[in-house]
């Protein structure tokens, strides 16, 4: 399901306009991004939890030349699915 299909489906189920649904989804994304940048977490009821985790620095290889390169540490978003979502997918 792409973004347009998601917006259409939510609008049909909720009875809201597509424009309102699109605005709400964008706002959720903006708020989640701001919270993760501050080191917090975002709980999405029934879906799971978004957090920012730190990925350690490591060595890698340039696939074109085979030369070893240093990959710096960085923070990455992480999603942990809620038990209800896992159970729904596996039923």
Q: Can you characterise this structure?
A:
It is built from 3 helices and 5 strands; from the N terminus they run ααβββββα. It has helices at 3-14, 18-37, 83-89, and strands spanning 42-44, 48-55, 58-61, 68-71, 74-81. The chain has a 3-stranded antiparallel sheet with strand order 1-2-5. It has a two-stranded antiparallel ribbon with strand order 3-4. Helix 1 (3-14) packs across helix 2 (18-37). It starts with a helix and ends with a helix.
Element layout with pairings:
Elements: H1 3-14, H2 18-37, E1 42-44, E2 48-55, E3 58-61, E4 68-71, E5 74-81, H3 83-89
Antiparallel strand pairs: 1-2, 2-5, 3-4
Average pLDDT, rounded to a whole number, is 95
- Report the order of strands and helices: HHEEEEEH
**CATH-defined fold name of the largest domain:** HU Protein, Chain A
> How many helical elements?
3
Number of domains: 2
Helix content: 40-55%
Rg calc: 18 Å
Strand order of the largest sheet: 1-2-5
> Whole-Å distance between the termini?
20 Å
Give the class-level CATH name of the largest domain.
Answer: Few Secondary Structures
């Amino acid at each position: 399901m792409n973004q347009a299909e998601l917006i259409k489906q939510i609008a049909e189920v909720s009875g809201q306009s597509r424009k309102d649904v699109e605005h709400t989804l964008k706002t959720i994304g903006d708020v989640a991004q701001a919270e993760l940048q501050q080191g917090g977490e975002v709980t999405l009821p029934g879906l799971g939890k978004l957090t920012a985790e730190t990925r350690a620095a490591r060595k890698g290889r340039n696939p074109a030349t085979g030369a070893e390169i240093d990959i710096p540490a960085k923070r990455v978003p992480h999603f942990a699915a809620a038990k209800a979502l896992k159970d729904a997918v596996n039923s």
